[in-house]
Amino acid sequence: MDISVNLKFEQIKELLNKLSPKQFEAVRRYVNEVSHERSLISKEKNNLKQLLKNAPVISEEEIEKIQEARRIIISWRNE
Q: Looking at the record's lineage, which domain of life comes first (predicted)?
């Protein structure tokens, strides 16, 4: 079951101000934990993007060589 609540930032601030110090600390720890997890996920995505950007790229000439090698292998198998 999903519950969706639309709160404005001001409403969230009001709710936070009504919390006891212990509850507020629990919320603060939770927000920090979630923020850290999101930061790690974002960092991993950026690392993957960088890896893909810096990955070697095959040239048209290399593609032609591979295709020619495939043709040769296929003709050799058919002999």
A: Bacteria
Q: How far is CA 32 from CA 1, 37, 58, in A?
A: 26, 9, 43
The model carries a pTM of 0.50
Q: What are phi and psi of 2, to 5 degrees?
A: -105, 140
- Tens digit of each residue's pLDDT (9 = 90 or more) over 12-58: 999 999 999 999 999 999 999 999 999 988 888 888 888 888 888 89
The domains of the chain are located at 9-77
The Cα-based distances of 43 to 46, 49, 62 in angstroms read 5, 10, 33
**With contact defined as beta carbons under 8 Å apart, do 33 and 44 qualify?**
no
